[in-house]
Amino acid sequence: MSLDAARAWAAADPDPETRAELEATIAAAEAGDEAAMAEVTDAFRGRLQFGTAGLRGRIAPGPNRMNTVVVQQASAGLARYLVDREPYPSVVIGWDGRRGSERFARDAAEVFAGAGVRAILLPRLLPTPVTAFAVRHLGASAGVMVTASHNPPADNGYKVYLGGADEGSQIVPPADAEIAARIVEAAAVPVTEYPRGEPEVAGEGVWESYVAATAAIGQPDQGMPGAGGPRVVYTPLHGVGLETVRAVLDAAGFPPVTVVPEQAEPDGAFPTVDFPNPEEPGALDLAMALATAEGAELILANDPDADRLAVAVPDASAPAGWRMLTGNEVGLLLGWDAARAARGHGVLAASIVSSPGLGVIAEAHGLEFVQTLTGFKWVSRVPGLVYGYEEALGYLVNPGTVRDKDGISALVRILTLASELHERGSSLAEELLALAAEFGAFESGQVSVRVTDLARIPALMGALRQAPPTELAGAAVVAADDLALPEHGEIGDILRFTLDDGSRVMVRPSGTEPKLKVYIDATSTDGPPAARVRAARERVAAIAEAVRPLLARES
C-alpha cells in the first residue's frame, strides 16, 4: 500500500530533486532494503501534522515530510481559510537560510496569489521577527515564515501568524484545526492543477521600519550608549540574524560587535555545530574561544532564525571561562528591567514551565503576573502585556511592535542593560546577585532525552503517570499533578512534581523536537546572595541527578 502511494507521489511530484530521491528509495524498497521500506512506510503513513506551530519536519518526499508539495497544499488550504474569513485577504511570506526555504516561500506565494490572496514576499531571507512584525506593519491577514528555527539541519517548517484581532500572533486553536481541515480539502487536488499567480515583493521599507522600531527600545533614558560599554562577541549560528543585528545596533548607537567569522553567513548545513541551537552543548564553543582571545566581556547569540537569544558571561570557574546564562536567568533579568520601567502598570507573563521568579518580581512592583500554557503563541496573547518570556531562550520585550518572541529586540535590551551596568562598574552577573538579594535566588536546570523512536516519549510519560516518584534528592514529593486532567485546567501533556523544600519538577514532550524535557526549579532565601545562588544551584543539580534514572523507565 505504501509503495503504491509512493509511486503515485513520485509520478506527480513537481520537484525533480525529491522525485529522484523517492524513486531511488522505492527501487531500494522493492529490492528488499528494509531501511528503505521503513522510510517509505513512515513517509506515507499520514500527513505531516499541522498544529499551532504550523508544520515542521524533515525535508524529504511524501505527505509526512516537508517538501514543495506539502508546502503548496498547506498554502492552498490556508488560502481557503483566509478567503472564507474576509473578502480581500493578504499574506506576508518570509524565509530564512535553511535548505529549501526560498523555494518553499516562493511556491507558497504563487499558490496564495493564484487563490485570490494578495501575496507579499519579503525582499530576501530575513529573521522570523521581521515576518511577525510585517504582518502588523502591513495590516496583513496572515503571515507565513518558512523556518525550522533551531531544529536539526535536515528539517524545515512553515509557521503561521494571523493578523486582525490576532495582532500578528501565532495561530492557536481552533484556527489550527480549521486550517488543517482546509489543507486536507486542498490536498485532494494535484498541486500541478493549482492556479498560480505572481506575488508582490515588499520594498526595503518593511525591514527598515523593523530596524527603527527595534533600535528605539535600545536607547537608555540617560542618552545613547557609548563606546565604554562591554566588549561583545556575537554569533548568528549560521543563521540570518547578522545583517539585522548590525543595522539595529548601529541605529541605536552601539559600537560594533565582534562576529564569529566561521558562523557569520547563512548556511543551512550548519557545519560548525551538531545542532543549531544555542542551548545545546558546544554550540557556543567558537564564540567563547573568540571572546577569550579578544578579551570580550559578553557573548550574545541568536538561533538561526533569530527569534531566540543566548547570553554568556565570564566565569573563571567554568571550563571555558564562560558561563551561558539559562533562559530563566535572562528572562528574570529582562523581567526585572521591564518591571522597573512599567511603574506599576501592565502585565508580566511567562509559560508555565518557566521560573516562578517572574511572579515574585511582578508582585513586588505592583504588576499582574500571568502564567500561560507552553508555547509563545499563548504568552504573546496576554492582555496588557509589557513583557513575557519562556525558558527556551524566548523573550518578548516590545509587544507593541512584535507579537512573538524576538531574539533581536531581546539582544538590544540585554545589551542596553549590560551597558548601563558597565557604566556603573557592574555587570549582568552582579545584577543576578542583586536580584537574588532582593527576591531570593531562583535557579533552574533542564534534563532532556532525545529520541529517534517517537513512541518512546508517550511510553516514558506513561511510566511517570503510573508510578510517580515519592521523593527526589532527599525531598519528599508532596504533590504529583497531571496538568492534562480537567482538575488542573487541561493545560497539556505536562507532569508537575512539587517537593517539600519548595522545589519544582515539570516533565513534558518538546513541541518542536523529538525530546522529552524535564524542567527543574529551586529557590533559596537564606544567607547572602552568593550563598543563596549556590544553595539553589546545588538543589537543582541534586534533583537533576535524581531525575535521570526516571527517564530510563518505560511502562
Topology:
Elements: H1 2-12, H2 16-30, H3 34-43, E1 55-58, H4 68-85, E2 90-95, H5 101-114, E3 118-121, H6 128-137, E4 142-146, E5 155-162, E6 169-170, H7 175-187, E7 200-201, H8 205-216, E8 232-235, H9 242-252, E9 258-259, H10 285-294, E10 298-302, E11 309-314, E12 322-324, H11 327-342, E13 347-351, H12 357-364, E14 368-372, H13 376-379, E15 385-390, E16 394-396, H14 407-423, H15 428-439, E17 441-450, H16 456-466, E18 471-472, E19 475-482, E20 495-499, E21 504-509, E22 515-524, H17 529-547
Parallel strand pairs: 2-3, 2-4, 3-7, 8-9, 8-10, 13-14, 13-15
Antiparallel strand pairs: 1-5, 4-5, 5-6, 10-11, 11-12, 15-16, 17-22, 18-19, 19-20, 20-21, 21-22
Describe the structure.
The chain is of the alpha/beta class. The protein folds into 4 domains: 46-204, Alpha-D-Glucose-1,6-Bisphosphate, subunit A, domain 3 (Alpha-D-Glucose-1,6-Bisphosphate, Chain A, domain 3), CATH 3.40.120; 231-323, Alpha-D-Glucose-1,6-Bisphosphate, Chain A, domain 3, CATH 3.40.120.10; 327-437, 3-Layer(aba) Sandwich (Alpha-D-Glucose-1,6-Bisphosphate, Chain A, domain 3), CATH 3.40.120; 441-552, TATA-Binding Protein (2-Layer Sandwich), CATH 3.30.310. 38% of the residues lie in helices and 20% in strands. The protein has 17 helices and 22 strands. It has helices at 2-12, 16-30, 34-43, 68-85, 101-114, 128-137, 175-187, 205-216, 242-252, 285-294, 327-342, 357-364, 376-379, 407-423, 428-439, 456-466, 529-547, and strands at 55-58, 90-95, 118-121, 142-146, 155-162, 169-170, 200-201, 232-235, 258-259, 298-302, 309-314, 322-324, 347-351, 368-372, 385-390, 394-396, 441-450, 471-472, 475-482, 495-499, 504-509, 515-524. The strands form 4 sheets. Strands 1, 2, 3, 4, 5, 6 and 7 form a 7-stranded mixed β-sheet that branches. It has a 6-stranded antiparallel β-sheet with strand order 17-22-21-20-19-18. It has a 5-stranded mixed β-sheet with strand order 9-8-10-11-12. Helix 11 crosses helix 15 (428-439). The longest helix has 19 residues, at 529-547. The radius of gyration is 24 Å and the shape is globular. The model is unreliable at 221-227 (pLDDT under 50).
